[in-house]
Design brief:
heterodimer; A: about 120 residues; alpha+beta; three-stranded antiparallel β-sheet; 4 helices; elongated; B: mainly alpha; about 0% strand
């Protein structure tokens, strides 16, 4: 879809929704959890991303539930969203594989004499 | 509703109204969940994130997250701004005419300006009528009635240009008039012309092609865009145009008034007046603000770049037509090319910034 890959928040939102149907704050919590507390998305970013992903057909709103006295709208990944996330995951994995291979080849060579 | 929630709702205004209808309550709930217990003020980082995300959503929902889309939105914006400027200038010119019996405004180029100044000095009702037409055209565009705006602005311009064409045949170039009069001093206000003074004078009608630009853009929007765009802040636009009208009426043509006399050709020899200075200042401020803003929203970048075209066209016409109309009086210095160079640089910077932002926004 996008040539330069996804923005990281978008990727993380899709990853969270691939694990479960969630509401906006649920996405924030899920990302916080699976990143071991390193990434805390902000609400504005999450809803901005959800709005755009909804318009692009990658996520869809999936009912509202009353929780803690407030109505919360849930979102889930669509088929298109699964494809986009898979493609992005492959892209990132391929980049990571290249990096790992390069690092393995470097092993043993003293730092500072890379060239 | 807590104070915290109230602050959230205020910050939510960064998002477009449809977004707030769709997700506003959910987003507030998420913000309340996300807040530290007992906090009274929304943290700065959260507030900044809301504003940034809101502008992103606005740009995206307007369809401006592609080059074609952001260019189209920019053209719509520039058409509205050009019509607003045109309406403000038209009303201010009617006011100015009522006060001084002189004309400082016209929708096309210098030659037309000269001829119409001689002609326009005879009829206030024409200027009042034209200003009403431009104001209605602007209001129609703001309300999304682009076809009406296009018809009105085309009619007003066609009228002016046809009158100007008719006059062009009957009024000789200035240098011919001067040589007939036999003496420069008797016709040119304030005595012997100096190059810098004429440089300023020749640039006075620089804003005139705003009229032509507004017509072209309005017709383009009316004919080419499927969705007839409507401003969400109608009253904001009308109020801004009203303020500009007051500004233009107050600054008037400044020094240019002195030495003017009736319908003599010499009245079309104003020095650079307050209007032109005001427009130049507005343009420079707009370029600076837009360059900063176009890092997040590409639309105003395109709009201001398009609106720089009158400056560029006018500077080029100065260099070509100046000689024809003023003959030996036209002695441009290096300053003549300066606005051309600055406007050109501004256009390049604005287009580059708007393009790179659009490409960045295309990423999901």
């Amino acid at each position: 879809m996008a040539e330069a890959g996804m923005r990281e928040p978008t990727f993380l939102v899709l990853t969270a929704l691939a694990q479960a149907r969630l509401h906006g704050y649920g996405v924030i919590q899920s990302v916080l959890e699976f990143s071991d507390g390193r990434v805390r998305l902000r609400p504005g970013t999450v809803y901005g991303a959800l709005d755009r992903l909804d318009a692009e057909g990658l996520v869809i709103s999936d009912g509202e539930e009353l929780e803690g006295g407030r109505l919360r709208r849930y979102f889930r990944l669509t088929g298109l969203g699964q494809e986009a996330l898979a493609a992005e995951a492959d892209r990132l994995a391929a980049n990571a594989a290249v990096a790992r291979r390069a690092l393995r080849r470097m092993k043993g060579r003293p730092v500072g004499q890379l060239a | 509703m807590s104070g915290y929630e109230g602050q959230c709702r205020v910050l939510l205004r960064a998002f477009p109204a449809e977004f707030r209808r769709d997700h506003g309550d959910d987003l507030v709930t998420a913000l309340l969940d996300d807040a530290r217990p007992g906090s009274r003020l929304v943290p700065l980082a959260t507030a900044a994130d809301l504003v940034r995300s809101g502008v992103r959503v606005r740009v995206f929902r307007s369809g401006a997250a592609s080059i074609g889309g952001s260019l189209r939105e920019g053209l719509v914006l520039s058409a509205i701004i050009a019509l607003g400027l045109q309406a403000a200038l038209a009303v201010a010119s009617a006011v100015y005419f009522a006060q001084h019996g002189l004309v400082f405004y016209l929708p096309t180029d210098m030659a037309v300006f000269l001829h119409l100044s001689a002609w326009g000095a005879q009829s206030l009702s024409v200027w009042v009528l034209l200003s009403v037409v431009w104001v209605v055209a602007f209001a129609a565009a703001v309300r999304g009635l682009w076809k009406m705006a296009a018809v009105l602005s085309v009619a007003a311009s066609a009228y002016l240009i046809s009158v100007a064409a008719w006059l062009a045949a009957s009024v000789p170039p200035v240098h011919a008039v001067l040589s007939q009069a036999g003496s420069t001093n008797s016709v040119v206000p304030g005595g012997e012309p100096t190059p810098s003074r004429y440089m300023q004078f020749v640039s006075t009608p620089g804003f005139l092609s705003i009229g032509v630009v507004s017509v072209v853009l309005t017709v383009f929007v009316a004919v080419r865009t499927r969705r007839q765009p409507r401003c969400s802040r109608t009253w904001w636009w009308l109020a801004t145009a009203g303020l500009l009208t007051v500004l233009f009426s107050v600054v008037g043509d400044g020094d240019a008034v002195q030495g003017g006399s009736g319908s003599n050709v010499s009245t079309s020899y104003p020095r650079q007046g307050g209007i032109m200075t005001a427009l130049q200042v507005l343009f420079v401020v707009a370029v600076i603000v837009t360059l900063l803003w176009s890092r997040v929203d590409p639309r105003p970048g395109w709009a201001v770049a398009v609106l720089a075209v009158p400056w560029i066209v006018h500077q080029i016409s100065d260099i070509t037509l100046g000689n024809f109309y003023y003959g030996y009086l036209y002695q441009p210095g290096w300053e003549t090319a300066l606005p051309l160079i600055l406007a050109g640089a501004a256009v390049i910077a604005l287009v580059a910034s708007a393009t790179s932002t659009t490409i960045r926004l295309r990423r999901l």
